[in-house]
Amino acid sequence: MTDLSPPPWHLVHTADLACHMVAPAGGASRVVYSLPHSGRYYPDSFVAEARQSPLGLRASEDAFVDELVDLRPELGVHGIACRYARAFCDVNRSPLELDARLIRGELPKAALSLSARVKAGFGVIARRLNADQDIYSHPLDMVEVNRRLDLIHRPYHTALKRLLAEAKRAGSPAILIDWHSMPSAALSHFKAGEPRPDIVLGNRHSETCSPDLVRRVRGVLEGAGLRVGLNKPFAGGYIVETYGRPAGGVEALQIEINRAIYMDEVRVEPLGGGLRLKGVFKDLTAELTRA
User: Least packed by Cβ within 10 Å: which of 7, 27, 60, 193?
Assistant: First the structure.
């Protein structure tokens, strides 16, 4: 297993290599933090066979988000973070988002091979890092795809469902925050001179959480001087759209952090803004965990 940047994990190691989990020190919380894309473990065989360099493979990684959120029992939330890189298996996709241009052989009949994400090359096993960079030099067998789903995707979602059930027992509604970062290039559609957001919140255009949750989160972030957008360009991915069911007792909100404000996007190295963000997110956690 290749670790391209040894992480100072602040999480409780579980028997399952797929993810790290943390429980609130107080034993009960209705808040769950999900970090699906901050993993930086890349199997050696994957790195060796990839078209891109090891550093290049990290382009799709939500680098250092785990450190910014700083999951610890003392935060008072349930937390789960994927250890594996999203380039290897993306837990923020449906397991049926299978790419026929990458996978050799017959796909399951229920495969969502025509979804917009799959068409773009970003299925559960991504074909691309971005629009110009393919990951693989040869197709994958369905056997290998199923192996990754069994190793990573299914354990992550089994654990996440359990955490949400525990959160609901602590109070309703449970709050699910799905943490991400976005390349600054994703904001290139903003007009020249138009302020670009530091943070983009996504609630599937009000489908996955109440306006009150958006207001509370936005209030903390904007109170700290951050520019906050809503649902543009990211309205929430598979995790938010799957688990965000306000009528069923779970409110889900995606948080996307502009990478330019805390890291060198080319070198994949942290910059000075990270310490400030860490403090802001600690304040946000305090707000969300208030009774």
Answer: 193
- For residue 127, the number of C-alpha atoms closer than 13 Å in the C-beta half-sphere is 20
Distances from the Cα of 6 to the Cα of 52, 83, 135, 208, 213, angstroms: 20, 12, 22, 35, 35
Cα–Cα distance between 202 and 181 in angstroms, integer? Answer: 12
Provide the CA 12 distance to its chain's centre, in angstroms: 19
Query: DSSP string of 94-126?
Result: -TT---TTTEESPPPTT--TTSHHHHTT-SSS-
What are the pLDDT digits (tens) for 107-151? 999 999 999 999 999 999 999 998 889 999 999 999 999 999 999
The answer to whether residues 122 and 89 touch, using CB atoms and an 8 Å cutoff, is no
Amino acid at 14: T
Task: Please state whether 257 falls in left (phi above 0), alpha (psi between -120 and 50) or beta.
Answer: beta
Using a cut of 0.90, tell me whether the model's pTM lies above it: yes
Residues 203-233 pLDDT 10s: 999 999 999 999 999 999 999 999 999 999 9
Tokens matching residue 237: 């991915």
